[in-house]
Amino acid sequence: MVEIRQIRATELGELLALYCHLHEADDPLPASDHVEGIWREIQADPNQRYFGFFADGLLVASCALSIVPNLTRGCRPYGLVENVVTHGDHRRKGCGKAVLKAALTYAWDRNCYKVMLLTGRKNEGIYQFYESAGFDRYAKQAFLAKPGTEAGDGKPKG
Predict the structure, then answer these.
(1) Which of 56, 73, 80, 94 is close enough to 66 for a disulfide, judged by CB 3.0 to 4.6 Å?
(2) Which of 55, 42, 44 is nearest to 82 (CA)?
(3) Quick check: pTM over 0.85?
(4) Region of residue 72 (phi > 0: left; psi between -120 and 50: alpha; otherwise: beta)
(5) Whose CA is closest to 3, among 72, 67, 68, 51?
């Protein structure tokens, strides 16, 4: 049985386990009470939604959607998608595309005028996947700043 829906507050453990398939290496999580506090904040925020693809009750794909209130475009909000992940055993089966469709539908129902996502992957197959899910890689140019870079030069400090 397949179910595509928002991830429930009680499913944090399943989501964290799925995130092991997102990056080969990631920063360690802080103490569980801190992680659970952040999850409670996310769950309480009406502009934060996590969508999941469940196969036989198991979470096998997910993405996060943030709705950002906006003062342009007729005060229509926009959306940001992050942390798109599919369990390695379930890739190329439509799971990722299904959660992205759910996120886009949710955003359009809330009158978002656009939804954006970024990927750090340098892989043509990934680009084609996002295009097949309705995203246009040529519509905008993305820029990214991280802590430790000097304003204006894009180079690390020091």
Answers:
(1) 80
(2) 42
(3) yes
(4) beta
(5) 51
